[in-house]
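Tutorial handout. Part one gives the primary structure; part two gives the three-dimensional structure as tokens.
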Amino acid sequence: MSIDIDFTRRNKKPRLLSDPEKDKLEEFIDNIHYSSRYNDDQFEYRHVQLPKAMLKAIPKDYFDNGRGTLKLLWEDEWRGLGITQSLGWEHYEVHEPEPHILLFKHPPTEEAGNIVKE
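Part two.
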């Protein structure tokens, strides 16, 4: 099952944070909010809400200047920001009216009451 990520909206390869950059983000990590999971017949979804002030501490090259939002982040990048969730989640969109809200999806799992169809 394809997740259909627009890879042109990502960095060409993951851009990992330096230790000083991680230190700037540390104060925000406990205030990251995770939605409940929700699903349709293709994917399981959740959104992650970053504290608005956190956006100012994220390095500029994580942003899509044309959209004024974060780029679509590689797993190593969003984990580096302090987002924690199980394996398999893909950052597929940013809610443009509220750029601090990141949208994630992954194929449904049996734990979610769904069976993955091969």
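Part three, for discussion. Residues 114-118 have pLDDT under 50 and may be disordered. The first strand starts at residue 33 and ends at 34.
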